[in-house]
Amino acid sequence: xxxxxxxxxxxxxxxxxxxxxxxxxxxxxxxxxxxxxxxxxxxxxxxxxxxxxxxxxxxxxxxxxxxxxxxxxxxxxxxxxxxxxxxxxxxxxxxxxxxxxxxxxxxxxxxxxxxxxxxxxxxxxxxxxxxxxxxxxxxxxxxxxxxxxxxxxxxxxxxxxxxxxxxxxxxxxxxxxxxxxxxxxxxxxxxxxxxxxxxxxxxxxxxxxxxxxxxxxxxxxxxxxxxxxxxxxxxxxxxxxxxxxxxxxxxxxxxxxxxxxxxxxxxxxxxxxxxxxxxxxxxxxxxxxxxxxxxxxxxxxxxxxxxxxxxxxxxxxxxxxxxxxxxxxxxxxxxxxxxxxxxxxxxxxxxxxxxxxxxxxxxxxxxxxxxxxxxxxxxxxxxxxxxxxxxxxxxxxxxxxxxxxxxxxxxxxxxxxxxxxxxxxxxxxxxxxxxxxxxxxxxxxxxxxxxxxxxxxxxxxxxxxxxxxxxxxxxxxxxxxxxxxxxxxxxxxxxxxxxxxxxxxxxxxxxxxxxxxxxxxxxxxxxxxxxxxxxxxxxxxxxxxxxxxxxxxxxxxxxxxxxxxxxxxxxxxxxxxxxxxxxxxxxxxxxxxxxxxxxxxxxxxxxxxx
Length: 610
Description:
Layout lengths: L1 H15 L9 H7 L27 E2 L9 H5 L12 H6 L13 H12 L5 H14 L1 H10 L1 H8 L3 H7 L1 H4 L6 E4 L6 H6 L8 E5 L16 H14 L6 E7 L5 H4 L14 H19 L4 E4 L4 H11 L4 E4 H21 L8 E4 L3 H18 L3 H4 L3 E5 L2 E2 L25 H8 L3 E4 L9 H9 L5 E4 L11 H7 L5 E4 L6 E3 L2 E3 L2 E2 L6 H11 L6 H12 L4 H5 L10 H18 L12 H7 L8 E2 L1
Parallel strand pairs: 1-16, 2-4, 3-4, 3-5, 5-6, 7-8, 7-10, 10-11, 11-12, 12-15
Antiparallel strand pairs: 8-9, 13-14
Helix pairs in contact: 6-7, 6-9, 7-12, 12-22, 16-17, 16-23, 19-20, 22-25, 23-25, 25-26
């Protein structure tokens, strides 16, 4: 009541001197307002402290920034700008008369117009830039567009187009979309985090740019990856945009082309390594927990192998951390394998797996397969690992090479005579499933696919490397060389293929199936750690969403058109596992976790302003 009286008095004062802006102490409002008592939002958003998503779509909200936004300021604020969708009353009350053409366009009509404009662009990067421009001027319309047209726009805002965007990020950079933390900020990272305008961060995606997709070291220009991932967290998983923070850690680059580029936006020095690198990351991890608390999810993205494994091992016991390249890829591929078993027959333990690539993705997938097999058969994981073989740049990983192997490859060194090439490995091991995570294109040759087809009625072939140019083979090659018998999935999208009068729709083992729902499940349960059991639960939940109709069409992943429903089911299973393991802090546990997940999802529909 006192807060209400103070505000009325203040309003009278401001109006009395004919000021248009109503200044307020936002921290005071947040602490005294009732929205803090609401942990889930009917309109979307876990712990929606500002209340704009707690309001239902037909309720009026106030467009707060530092003040009540009005006039030209309101039109320049991407969180509240609605363009031509401001109604007559809003145009009067927020001083928009004359600043907009007289026409009114609903959000649906704006969406239709934008899709028409986007389809005029023939170059994917032009579409990417247009989408980023939209995000910077009208946040809700951006997410509405992406949610309603996810299958068409996912390749634009993420792989494969995001790879080219990162390569040219210095040229297309317009305004900061995340935080850049470089060696220059060492010793004051906590202060730098406070420069970000949002305080209630729930998920951070961070990269150091050393291994961007299959494109190598792009340094500071890797920012496109965290930005793209977090836009998917919101569009596909329903996390509020204001709760997401993209971060690039700039420790230099070993890319000579970038170092000699006058337009390069990062530090022009060789990469820091060793103690200097470790100290910067330690300071960063401590500062994140200090600023945002124990339950902020930190997703490591596109770190080089040696750092990726070390960081995940080091911080998984003290922070809520997740590596999408290791764990996210593993979860989505395991889901595809579980679904594929319904087409090939047999159990997981009946299969033999051969990987081309023994880095983060390859070993991460292999470990999750072995864990699931161990769970199903109640056998020791040391035994189930023997069903999984890996090929790296030196050939088949066997026990005679064990002394020279990196630590994360050693569990996969089995007894076998040395084998040099992939084709020889396929002939020797006779796998039922061939999985590519090498980052090198055209490595699943015609001879390799034909060999797989010679001893498998339905060879399972996953060409997972991104972007499309780095895929181990194309969908057309897999179906043609296997005479239409292959069960194929890729990391980047491929168009349907017609072979022998039949149309094959290739699956896409895209991590976007997993990480948005996983993140939502962790956040809505208040989980404090990520465990492998949660990844297995996510894989099983995704596989369960593949319908018989999908199987009849040869699909082992459900259509992306249903991704929000899929994410809600994944979130529910992950949250249930967090509660089961005693790692959830949001109590009591909701009775219907799927409904609760759906209620927590951010809605991009325009709101009406007072």
